[in-house]
Amino acid sequence: MIELEQAGVTAYAPAQPEERGSGGHEQVVTLLHPTTCTLAERRIAVIGANGSGKSTLARLINGLALPSSGRVLVDGADTATDGAAVRRRVGFVFTDPDAQLVMPTPVEDVALSLRRLGLDRAARTARARQVLARFGLAERAELPVSALSGGQKQLLALAGVLATEPAVLVCDEPTTLLDLRWRRVVDDLLDGLPQQVLLVTHDLEAAARADRVLVVDQAQVVHDGDPEQAVALYRDLMASGATTG
Predict the structure, then answer these.
(1) Distance (Å, whole) CA 111 – CA 114
(2) Looking at the record, which segments are called Disordered (predicted)?
(3) Deepest of 33, 81, 117, 158, by most Cβ within 10 A of its Cβ?
């Protein structure tokens, strides 16, 4: 279970050029206003315009971003004080798989993820091959990662994260860079996972299939609940030009 208790995020921005000569100070920018909610549903979607704060909210869940105020708990573990426990429970998938694929070949990349399980090298390699087979990548285990298509890279990124069997999977726009065919492959995979999935997305069809949808606008959650109502509100916001970015 994910709990946000008045969790907010701020950052400092340098003074504007015209202010520097007159002793201008750094500005405090709010990336996410204090937010309180308990997320227990199996499928949760987060939608909002670019720059609205939805990715900041997602990054709070596994400690990639820490709250400036309040706290975030995952199954009782505080992201600020027990980050290791949180990272064992929460997997994170980025928009661009190249941001998380670091090894030369798929089998090496998945095996690297498995190091945290304490397996020896041979056991990690064998387990990595099993994981790749599960994701339809067995025949590409020894290929250079650079030779994979964008969709195959995203599958590999998912395979590496899911290999350690996290309880929660946070996906930050995992299909944004994919064509329609690969988008469907990834969507179907996410829909079939046993894990709790929090999906940040611009795909309103995917959002509508969630059990619960959060709409983020101007660094705050403006809707939390029914997917149909959430999508309708987001469409209205986009049509009115009221959203940020």
Answers:
(1) 5
(2) 1-25
(3) 158
Task: Please name which of 204, 129, 141, 212 lies closest in space to residue 173, comparing C-alpha atoms.
Answer: 204
The token pair that represents 87 in the structure block: 């990272």
Q: Taking the CB of residue 82, how many other CB atoms lie within 10 A of it?
A: 15
CA angle 91, 97, 98 (to 5 degrees): 125
Helix or strand or coil: residue 237?
A: helix
> Does the predicted TM-score (pTM) go above 0.70?
yes
Helix (H) or strand (E) holding 212: strand 212-217
CA-to-CA distance for 30 and 40, rounded, in angstroms? 26
Domains of the chain: 2-97+166-240 (3.40.50.300)
Nearest to 38 by CA among 70, 7, 10, 2: 2
| Mean pLDDT (the chain, rounded) | 92
Q: Note the pLDDT of residue 245.
A: 37
